[in-house]
Amino acid sequence: MKVSLNSVLKFLWAAALVTLPVTSFRWFPFLGDSTLVRPLALYPLALLLPLLLIQAIRRQRPFPWAGSAILLGVFAVAVLAATSFGVLIDPIPLRGQTYLGRAVRALVTLVIGLVFFVAAIWMNRDEDEVKFTLRWALAGFGLELAWSALQAVTFYTGLLNKEMVTHWQLAFSMRELVRTNRISGLAYEPAWLAGQIVTMYLPILFAALLTKTHLTRFRWLEPVLLGLSALLLLATYSRGGILIGMGVAGLVFLLVGREHLRAAWTWYFGGFRQGWLVRVGMIVLLVAVLAGSFAFLGRKNYFRRLWDISADSLSEYLVDINVGGRSAYATGAMAAYDEHPIFGVGLGASGFWIYNHLPDWTLTTVPEVAKQLSPESNLYPNPKNLYVRLLAETGLVGFVFFFIYLLSSLADSLSLLRRGPFFRFLGIAGLFAWLAIALYNVTQDSLATPNLWILPGIVAGISLSTSSLAPLNEEGKVKETA
Question: What is the pTM (predicted TM-score) of this model?
Fold first, then answer.
């Protein structure tokens, strides 16, 4: 049987989407144990991109010159320039880490991120390709749910031995099961799983429910997956992920779902006299769900500290809620920006400045910082905040170009809201993802995290193909042109 090149492309892209949740794959060559971001999806993408280049050379699938891709390319050039200037600074090696070594590792992470972004644009040129992508992305989420359910059975029942399941997980992951019984799924840690949910899967499912879009033939599947994603997000006990998911969902609903809000308001009060029992029952159910979620999260002292505190100052509060270390690293990294504000100190080099510029209050009150400062430690510090990292390592030049790329990505999502039903669905998903990613970047500093690039890439790809097309037909699709 003859297999077409397009079929191979689809197979590799589907494989990348299904394996997307595995972000710390154990079996990667030439990487030390300190490299935690190891996307399994990079393997099928390594085969996919050469084939896409072949098609581009044959003019069968031209390179996607999307505006946001071009801006991201300009940002990459600025990063290379900043890193080249950093060679002149050449900081003193730290715990065996040299500037050149850190720069090469950091540039590799940027390349990985660009690979996911470009592949997402290239493989999503029309509505059918986008639907193909989203279906296989949800298939990957199904695997995430299955492995998370296995972890939950291990943690909360006696049906599976925890040591045995740990060995299963270590067969593909760098991380064993979380000892605090928090669900981490196929990701490295619960916070990474929460990040995947709020930046990738929740935007798709939320937009599908809001616009009544069905990506599969099962009309019940998207609402069920949305409910399961919310439960899984709670099971991670990730404070940042849960707050981002709730906040962004509420904001997006207010921005683009006001007609649903008005319809619900009219329905609720319009028939209150005839069906008051049902309406009161809905309020009771909503309150019960919120109270149950609050009680569930309050079981963990890690989460309960957000409101159960006795701090007298902001620094004490940060220590009490276990973010003192993150604040310290970000503050230390900003010293690099203060010394080199224009071009920064080079990608990956901010860690050379952190230890010497930690706030005084963190030296004795934050155990994480004390562990890092121990002479026996070989850890290399990171800012833990992408925006701080870009300011410190690429200066104002790199940061401004990245910010312009973010605005361009937002514009792509907003432009889709004015088009047909499916494009509106994708625009809402893109808007949700954009807001979630913008907030999530405050809590992480890696450019290689795949879920930060997929939905923006999809939106950029479909925006490129619809930017100069004819008006919409009655079904909301672009009219065919000769």
Answer: 0.89
What is the enclosing helix (H) or strand (E) of 463? helix 454-466
CB 459 within 8 A of CB 430: yes
Q: Tell me the torsion sign for CA atoms 170, 173, 179, 183.
A: negative
Q: Fill in the DSSP letter of residue 202.
A: H
CA atoms within 13 Å, Cβ hemisphere of 360? 0
Q: How confident is the model at residue 273 (pLDDT cuts 50, 70, 90)?
A: low
E-strand stretches of 321-401: none
| 269 against 39, higher pLDDT | 39
Q: How many angstroms separate the Cα of 334 from the Cα of each of 1, 145, 393? A: 59, 39, 9
For residue 126, CA distances in Å to 180, 459, 460, 462 come to 44, 11, 11, 6
**The residue to which tokens 């085969």 are assigned:** 47
Tokens found for residue 131? 């639907």
Amino acid code (one letter) for 251: L
Say which residue the tokens 């599947």 belong to: 221
* Greatest Cα pair distance in the chain: 77
